[in-house]
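Researcher: Good morning. I'm working through a list of sequences from a screen, and I'd like to move beyond sequence-only analysis. For each chain I'm collecting a predicted structure so we can compare shapes side by side. This is the next one on the list. No need for commentary yet; just the structure.
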Amino acid sequence: MTKPNRLLRYSADRRSLATVACGLLLLVAPLAINFSAAALWIRFPFAALFCLISSVVNHNHMHRPIFYSHALNVGLNALLSIGRGHSATGIVVPHNHNHHVHAGSRNDWISPRFAGRGPGVVRIPRYIVSVSANMAFQRWKKNAPKLSRRWRLSSFLEKAVLWALVGSVFMFWGLNHVLTTFVIPWAAGLAMLVAVNLLQHEGVNNGSRDFVGSFTNWLLFNNGYHTVHHLYPSLHWSRLPEKHRQICHQKPHEYEEPSLLLYLARMMITRAPE
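Model: Good morning. Structure tokens for this chain:
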């Protein structure tokens, strides 16, 4: 078990913080360095990947705050909001309060049914657009879950930081920098995050599909161990592999995949599972 220190609940989150810091540096680099067009194209997939990883760190942080101090967690929320291009606490209502309650069912705002039929190359883009629109619609309904008072101030701060950043870059560098430096990598990172949810839940009868490959689990902080995450949402990401090994014998073998990337490649050319 990973031992906590005086600031962090789990020392494994040193890597979480270091990864977010690297992502932020990569994201803002074009503001300090005059990249060539070729260098910007080379930077783009890495920036988008780090935006995805920042969203994964943010997901873990919203389930199990990284710091003991609420003030430090609020500060981290602001940085994570820059790293992912969306309010850090913005995932709490659709993810913690809806998805984890209704995972995969018709009441799930990001249910796999939004992907429709056809091969994955059609389903995935349809799913990204449909569930993004549905989340925006559902969260504004009067009966939608609300953020706790503890996190409302943080949410306001996160949005203020994002708008101040975008506004400042627009004023001093122009719209092109806003789009190429931030908006496009942000959008790509969030789209990949949404797409991963489809891979994890489509065709699993209100359950989860696990991806146990070591590379993507290292890269995405054990996000592939999704069954145990849904069973124990507050369990720290560093403990998910151990818990998975303890309970995997209770889980149908066909819902465990050795590689997320290989499954994605196969999914792109196959129709939706029944």
